[in-house]
Amino acid sequence: MVRTSDRRIVCTHIGSGKTHDLELLKESKVKIHPKVVANLDRGYKDFEHRHPVVLMPKKEYKNQPLSAFDKAFNRMKSSGRILIEHVIRSLKIFRILAERYVTAETVLHYESI
Q1: Per-residue confidence (pLDDT) for residue 66, from 0 to 100
Q2: Domain that holds residue 67
Q3: Which pLDDT does position 109 carry in this prediction?
Q4: pTM to 2 decimals?
Q5: How far does CA 90 lie from the centroid of its chain?
Q6: How remote is the C-alpha of 77 from its chain's centroid?
């Protein structure tokens, strides 16, 4: 989870292998305060029933094109989402998510074996 006001990561949960984001959120059992607006993408579709204030982009259906208001809402929503994508990009650039974190204790443990 990222706080968009200052681009800080406020919560993480790690899964093994390829796990969908919604499954990670369910496994983490993170409680989001009811007054917090959850700005989510369409991958969190089922989360709408778990939190009172969820903003998700509107979906266009085959026989129901989006209205001008819905298109403007989706554009506004995506401009906020890009902040979160930049944080994720930074984590990938600095290989924070790809490498195993090794502490001094871990190194001492392997040297004593």
Answers
A1: 92
A2: 2-112
A3: 57
A4: 0.59
A5: 14
A6: 14
The answer to whether 73 touches 58, Cβ cutoff 8 Å, is yes
By DSSP bridging, strand 38-39 and strand 54-55 are parallel
Tokens 């959120």: give the residue: 25
- For tokens 């778990």, name the residue: 50
β-pairing, 38-39 with 8-9?
unpaired
- Which helix (H) or strand (E) element contains residue 9? strand 8-9
Q: Residue 9 forms beta bridges with which residues? A: 2
Number of domains in the chain: 1
Confidence of residue 31 (pLDDT cuts 50, 70, 90): confident
85 or 21: which leads in pLDDT: 85
- CA-wise closest residue to 1 among 93, 87, 89, 97: 87
Interval 43-55 mean pLDDT: 80
The radius of gyration computed from the CA coordinates of the chain, to the nearest angstrom, equals 18
What number of other Cβ atoms are within 10 A of residue 58's Cβ? Answer: 15
Alpha-carbon dihedral sign for residues 18, 7, 96, 31: negative
Tell me the pLDDT of the chain averaged across its residues: 78
